[in-house]
Each structure stands twice: as structure tokens, then as C-alpha cells.
Amino acid sequence: MVVDDAVTPSVMDDVRTELAPWLDATPCGPDEFSGRRTRRTGGLVARSKTCRELVMHPLVLGAAHELLKDGTSFQLHLTQVIAIGPGEPAQVIHRDQWAFDFFPFPQGYDVQCNTIWAMTDFTEENGATRVVPGSNRLADRLEFTQDDTVPAEMRKGSVLVYSGSVYHGGGANRSNEVRAGINITYNRSWLRQEENQYLAVPFEIARTLPDDLLRLIGYARGAYALGYVDDMRDPLEVIKGGGAAATGLGDLDSVRARLGAGGTGGSPARVG
Ligand SMILES: O=C(O)CCC(=O)C(=O)O
Ligand SMILES: [Fe+2]
Q1: Which residues line the pocket of ligand 1, CB cutoff 6 A?
Q2: Domains by residue range for the chain, with CATH
Q3: For 29-82, how does the pLDDT look when each residue is reduced to its tens digit (9 = 90+)?
Q4: Which mutation among 183, 184, 187 tests ligand 1's pocket best, with the greatest number of atoms within 8 A of CB?
Q5: Hey, which of 77, 85, 261, 264 has its CA 20 to 30 A from 30?
Q6: What is the number of the ligand 1 atom nearest to the C-alpha of 181?
Q7: Contact at 8 Å (CB) between 28 and 38?
Q8: pLDDT higher than 50, residue 248
């Protein structure tokens, strides 16, 4: 699904200004999947204030909540500017959830909600993301050709939202310009994050971030107990101190409600 003009183009100009030193310094990818003419720049929560707003965009969080609401919570999975240079061939068509060691999640059970924000216009010619529509309902480990796909063309400031089960890939860039997108993805908080937020966001920066963003990037317990610190302390309490969060395990009432509902939902998902 593409949400047209989710932010104004000037927001993307701000991102570019904030990230300029890192974008310029990023080398091209080491292999075909990363793209030998493609630069991938991460650490966006630490490096760009405006990217924090994209990470927390209510429309996207709403979509992630809706997709993953049968679980207790979700978290930020990765942040990455993907700048596809001229002459880059099309990326192999894949599912992003294959990152989890190709675990065969049950059909219809999504573990990831993904976005690609258009930092430049996305056109068929410059390498707009190629998507196989409806492929979240198909079997796993399928192979597709580019003919099976459609380009997610969109204006700068628009955002493509897709689940980890949708087959897709970066398009071939047949233009003379760089196609830049901001890949920001979310996953169930009982899974490992692809980008290590604890190391990508230096502690000195992390402790200045608002609580809701910190929880989303991983300073929270996933489900009931995952990710507590030493004497069952809440990670937010550890980083901020001063009773920022109650010490103890997760929200037991919500866990009980889920058990009561047969362990298949029944309680609202929390962000973070
Ligand atoms: O840049 C794009 O359009 C998509 C890239 C992609 O799907 C990936 O690297 O996993
Ligand atoms: Fe992908």
C-alpha cells in the first residue's frame, strides 16, 4: 500500500541535510543483494532528528499495530537509507522476514510491518521498489521474475507500507539519478532486531530521547519478561533512572487476558 504525500517533500530535504555527512561517506554494498551500486546508511535514530519523527509517524504506527495486534508489543527493527545508484540491476525478489533464518512462519501470521519512505520520487525508471501484489498470502520460498512485479511509483514524501511476507525487491535503476528511500521496519518484540539499536544509538543520545521512542527502539520488555535488566528492572528505568518506569516484569494482567483468550490475542498491543 502506498500512502501518497504522507509528509511534505521538505521533510525529506531536512533528512537529507541532517544525514549528508553519513550519506556521502557510506560505501556501496559488498554483494548482489545489498547492491554494488547501492549505499545503505543506518543508525538513523541517532543521526537524524527528522527520522525520529518518521519512526514515530502515527499513520505507520497505526498500521504496525493493526498488523501485529495479536501480540503484546512490537519494536523498531531497522532504519536504513537505501540509495540505489544509476546502473544498479534489479534486486532479487524476496520476503524481508527471511532475515529470521528463513523460519517458516505460518501463512497469515505476520511478524514484521515495513515502510519505505520516498526520499526522492520513485519511478519505474529510477528503481522504484518492485512488489508482487497479494503475495503475503502465497507459499514461502517462491521465486519470481521482474515480470511478476509492479513498481511502487510514488512522489517524494510518500510511503510504501508492506508486511514482511510481501515478495518485493529494489528496482533496476535505469536513470542517471540516485533513487533514495528510507527503509524503516518494525517487528514483534519477541524477535531479534535486525539493526542493533542499543549500539547504533550511543548511550549519550539514547538518554535524551523521549520515553515512547526509547520504548519503541527496544528499551522495554517484549511480551512479559523479555529484555529485563539484572533484578528484573525495566530498561527505561535503567537508562533514565528516577522511577521512569516501574521495576518488575511486564503487564501481568495483559498476559493473563491473553492466556484467558486461549493465548491468541484478546489484549491490545502496546507500542514498544
Ligand atoms: O530499496 C528498495 O526499494 C527495496 C530494498 C529491499 O527490499 C531490501 O533491501 O530488502
Ligand atoms: Fe526487502
Answers
A1: 82, 91, 96, 116, 129, 168-170, 181
A2: 2-188 (2.60.120.620), 221-266 (no CATH)
A3: 999 999 999 999 999 999 999 999 999 999 999 999 999 999 999 999 999 999
A4: 183
A5: 77
A6: 1
A7: yes
A8: yes
